[in-house]
Amino acid sequence: MVVKTGPFKQDTRRITAAEMKCMQKTAGYIWTDYKTSTETGKEINITLDKIQEYNRNWSQHVNRMTCNRLMRILKNYRPTGRRNHGRPLHRLLDVKDRKGSTGGPTEC
């Protein structure tokens, strides 16, 4: 079941886009072919229902695993903390001083 409201709306769009991209690669299309998702789906005879059924079967398979299996642990994993947004921090070797050196140790 695909959730189309709330905070999961963006995730739903991303999953759908990834599925369509996979279907286009299966059909042998590239991005310049300008095929719609319905055309691609009709050509390779894969519907979204089949993909959802596969996802449901996989989820049930993972739920039958023991609690200490990695896939079961990862299915319910929610990361804590926050990501650092903004520009990346400078590393020592990326910073150049006024003389043009790489910022590493200097020779005496």
Give a short summary of the structure:
The chain is mostly helical and 108 residues long. The protein has 4 helices and no strands. It has helices at residues 9-27, 37-44, 48-63, 70-75.
Strands, helices and their partners?
Elements: H1 9-27, H2 37-44, H3 48-63, H4 70-75
Helix pairs in contact: 1-2
Please describe what this structure looks like.
The chain has 108 residues and is an all-alpha fold. It has 4 helices and no strands. The longest helix is centred in the first third of the chain and has 19 residues. It is flat, with a radius of gyration of 23 Å. The model has no long low-confidence stretch (mean pLDDT 76).
Please give a handful of descriptors for the protein shown.
108 residues, mainly alpha, 0% strand
Radius of gyration: 23 Å
Identify low-pLDDT runs.
Answer: none
Global shape: flat
Q: What's the number of helices?
A: 4
Structural class computed from helices and strand pairing: mainly alpha
How far apart the termini lie comes to 67 Å
The arrangement of helices and strands along the chain is HHHH
The tally of strands reads: 0
Name the beta content range.
under 5%
Mean pLDDT: 76
